[in-house]
Design brief:
Length: 322
């Protein structure tokens, strides 16, 4: 059997794949994304595909792969880059990487939240540029978590792990929203299930940790930001498209909300002249939620094992239920 790997991946994952003796591997052996034409040529006739979240696997790619393709293994928990309906129609199985990246992503979410609400990048810059003249009572003040209300959009694996890490900071109340109440998950935080509008109105901090779906696309828009308090802080570590970025820009510029921290944007990378990058109250990271050496290594091994199990017709360690 033949597989196509769309990027250079951690060596542990590639070793698992090559040492299994199950398939021959063709790889786009680069840290940079594969050009579309190379992807279309590379998948042709392959039985398995190991891809990244930056590869759009749509009807064109599936057609180019042809009927041999039986397994797609993505090195991500997010699956919004995969045309799932089309994939299901063709009987292709999908592996992904939930759980093993939850801790790293939750940790980064908390780091981003603290960096944003306590204005860390701005403060570091002031030290370097001479803006730090003396200790001033109101200079570089921000907002703290103590006694706050935190709203989580999407109390899934990562959402719960974020709440668990924020609780010891003295959060007074957790709110969450989603497609349905999850009393078993919410119990640990005594979190209340509320509609999105109420979450916006009552939260001092909003953390977006949901998956990107047709329902969540553009969910954080003008109406949402207009309901938030002027002192509130908004964090997104899910996918950029959950947020209407023009509406976010207006909310930040007009002082409708206090600050935003984004690990994910549209597009990625965000052009260096993007208006959001001109704002002091917007902290932007380059999609590094799961970026610890151990996590990326584990993701590569899991995605290799998903692919191998699928090729052998066995149950995958982590298979997406289509
Ligand atoms: P889960 O499936 O465990 O959680 C997803 C959550 O999204 C669920 O709680 C679900 O709630 C919620 N959701 C779905 N629809 C809605 C809606 N309409 N409104 C509000 N919430 C909704 O996934 P994970 O926690 O493991 O991962 C979540 C996402 O985080 C991934 O899909 C990925 O996009 C992103 N991610 C980003 C990383 C980064 O590097 N920044 C790293 C890892 C993941 P319900 O069950 O009620 O539908
Ligand atoms: C994912 O897995 O979906 C992240 O965005 C990267 O780890």
């Amino acid at each position: 059997m033949q597989v196509f790997v769309t990027r250079r991946i951690p060596r542990e994952g590639l070793a698992a794949l090559s040492q299994a003796g199950v398939c021959s591997i063709q790889q786009w052996d680069s840290d940079e994304p594969i050009p579309r034409s190379e992807l279309l040529a590379g998948v042709a006739g392959k039985h398995g595909l190991l891809c990244l979240l930056s590869d759009r696997i749509d009807k064109e790619v599936l057609d180019a792969a042809g009927s041999n393709l039986k397994i797609i293994s993505t090195l991500s928990v997010g699956v919004d880059h995969l045309a799932l309906e089309e994939i299901k129609k063709r009987g292709i199985r999908v592996g992904y990487t939930p759980d093993i990246l939850t801790d790293a992503t939750a940790e980064l979410s908390v780091a981003l939240l603290l960096a944003t609400c306590r204005r860390l990048p701005e403060s570091v810059e002031e030290v370097k540029n001479g803006g730090w003249t003396t200790w001033k009572p109101l200079w570089m003040c921000g907002y703290g978590l103590s006694d706050s209300t935190v709203g989580i959009i999407g109390l899934g694996r990562i959402g719960q792990a974020v709440a668990r890490r924020l609780k010891p900071f003295g959060v007074k109340k957790f709110l969450y929203t989603g497609s349905r109440p999850k009393p078993e998950s919410a119990m640990e935080f005594q979190a209340d299930f509320v509609p999105l509008a109420k979450l916006a109105e009552e939260s001092d901090f909003v953390a977006v940790t949901c998956s990107l779906t047709p329902d969540t696309k553009g969910m954080c828009n003008k109406d949402f930001f207009s309901r938030m308090k002027k002192t509130s802080v908004f964090i997104n570590t899910s996918r950029g498209a959950v947020v209407n970025q023009e509406d976010l820009y207006q909310a930040l510029v007009s002082g409708q909300i206090a600050a935003a921290g984004l690990d994910v944007t549209t597009p990625e990378p965000l052009p260096t002249d993007h208006p959001l990058l001109s704002l002091k109250n917007c902290v932007i990271l380059p999609h590094i939620g799961s970026a610890t050496y151990a996590t990326r290594s584990a993701m590569s091994v899991l995605s290799a094992n998903n692919l191998l199990a699928g090729l052998k017709g066995e149950s995958m360690p982590s298979e997406l239920q289509l």
